[in-house]
Design goal:
This protein has two helices and 26 strands. It is mostly beta strands. The longest helix has 16 residues. The two termini are 35 Å apart.
Length: 486
């Protein structure tokens, strides 16, 4: 086991400095405001780097890369998060040991990726409580009990060293432009949708099996359709296989978008479809497969009230983007939810770059539902804001970078009302008032793989005892969004 760990570390260091040609990369940060796609799975093509000398000649490659005579490419690199730190007032070290592999491939207008991650972690106390309170519900002789946990953006857990988590997960996705007007996308992966850190209706902590299409109806007008299968971690009491299956739901989303040079506006309609209950599975209603919205009205009590609303953005100048969302579930005003935000990204000067994003989120008291059966959730987590129903939140993130050095920060302040629970049992309660700040400083070893050395300080002050002061040092491939923001 030790030999394998050392071999993997050598592979990591090699990836930081190895070099090759043009490749297909995953979740590469952009040096400008992205206005091209409303939905994407995070793939983009990297340009051949300029030839440089010394240290910088080794900074633009995945470990393995192959391109054939027809232009098809396949690329692979290790992905990891290796850090250790100390939480104030707690005994012992906190750490994370995550190792995995990312593979990307593409040919002409088709591209895909796959990744797998294995993780062991001892996390801060507020993270432990959140993960455990969203764990699996197991049936017992008298009642259900909750076991294990669910890591946002990760997977369900097993116990590790009494207070830690052992978990693994995999993702895969593809996108294919069938013609100049029609493209398809999907897989078991997260989707990048919102211009902000998270969206009210779908954030990238979700890993769900989805398939979607984008159709260009006319110049500047696009129609999107997504169908998917969601799970909540509720085990059924009777089963024929080795392990009891989870509670399943159907997911349907339709959107119509108008996009101009500096402006985008659209309407969105999404629903959850019942796949039985906690005891027995049931096929989805045949109306689920309609390519147009509104047919849920014929499915009676087998579908949720729809989440519907408007989304849009406006770019008044090249370095500023204003964006917003406004939604309701059904026609109840208590479900009204909105997000308003702005992204500031001035042009780089003399190697300096800076970005700033701020948003205000308001979630209605039952926007994600009022019971588990038809809630807008996946893996026991809300599809949008991790805080769930009845919350008001201010988010601010920024990053200052000079060549390979960077300083970043994230600030969150939120309050909660009395919101309806979407969990099978009421095992999670949002704190009344929380201030949360995360500061990070680091050095980029390889911009293409986003291999960085970093130090991080996490400060959290809430209305309960789940307060944190923790400092960590480590190395990671920074392709995943910070998900422990709650």
């Amino acid at each position: 086991m030790v030999k394998i760990q050392w071999c993997f570390l050598v592979l990591i260091l090699w990836s930081a400095f190895h070099s090759t040609g043009q490749i297909l990369v995953y979740q590469q940060p952009k040096d400008h405001i992205n206005l091209e796609n409303w939905i994407d799975i995070g793939l983009s093509r990297s340009q051949n780097p300029r030839k440089q000398k010394g240290f910088y000649r080794y900074d633009s490659l995945y470990v393995l890369s192959y391109r054939d005579s027809l232009g098809a490419t396949i690329n692979a690199t290790p992905i990891f998060s290796l850090w250790a730190g100390k939480e104030n007032g707690k005994n012992g070290l906190k750490y994370q040991n995550s190792r995995g592999l990312l593979v990307t491939a593409g040919h002409r207008k088709f591209s895909c990726f796959a990744l797998i991650m294995e993780n062991q972690a001892l996390l801060a106390e507020y993270q432990n409580q959140f993960i455990k309170s969203h764990g699996e519900y197991y049936p017992g002789a008298i009642a259900y009990s909750q076991q294990n946990g669910m890591v946002p953006g990760g997977g369900r857990t097993k116990p590790f060293k009494n207070t830690g988590f052992d978990y693994s997960y995999s993702q895969g996705g593809m996108e294919w432009d069938l013609s100049s007007r029609i493209s398809i996308f999907g897989g078991n992966c997260s989707l990048n949708i919102s211009e902000g850190m998270r969206s009210l209706f779908w954030s990238n902590h979700n890993q769900a099996a989805v398939i979607g299409s984008k159709i260009m109806l006319a110049p500047h007008i696009q129609y999107f359709m997504i169908k998917g299968r969601l799970f909540d971690l509720i085990r059924k009491p009777s089963y024929a296989n080795v392990e009891s299956p989870y509670y399943k739901k159907g997911y349907s989303m339709n959107a119509l978008m108008y996009t101009a040079k500096k402006f985008r506006a659209g309407i969105l309609y999404q629903t959850i479809w019942k796949g039985g209950d906690s005891i027995k599975e049931q096929p989805l209603s045949s109306w689920f497969w309609s390519p147009l919205p509104g047919f849920d009205q014929f499915a009676s009590n087998r579908v949720s009230l729809p989440q519907w609303g408007m989304i849009g953005h406006y770019q008044p100048i090249s370095s500023l983007l204003l964006y917003g969302e406004a939604f309701c579930r059904g026609l109840n005003r208590n479900n009204f939810s909105y997000q308003v935000g702005a992204t500031f990204f001035p042009a780089s000067r003399n190697g300096w770059t800076f970005s700033l994003n701020t948003a205000i989120n308001h979630v209605g008291t039952s926007f994600y539902g009022d019971n588990y059966a038809l809630s807008f959730s996946n893996n026991n987590l809300p599809l949008g804001s991790l805080l769930g129903n009845g919350t008001q939140e201010l988010l601010l993130s920024c990053k200052l970078k000079y060549k390979r050095f960077y300083v970043g920060g994230l600030m969150q302040y939120y309050t909660s009302l009395i919101g309806k629970t979407i969990l099978f049992r009421d095992t999670y309660s949002v704190e009344n008032k929380v201030f949360h700040g995360i500061g990070e400083i680091g050095f980029v070893l390889n911009p293409l793989t986003q291999c960085v050395l970093f130090g991080l300080f996490d400060y959290r002050n809430g209305s309960t005892s789940l307060n944190t002061k923790m400092f960590t040092l480590g190395m990671k491939t920074a392709i995943f969004t910070q998900q422990h923001v709650y």
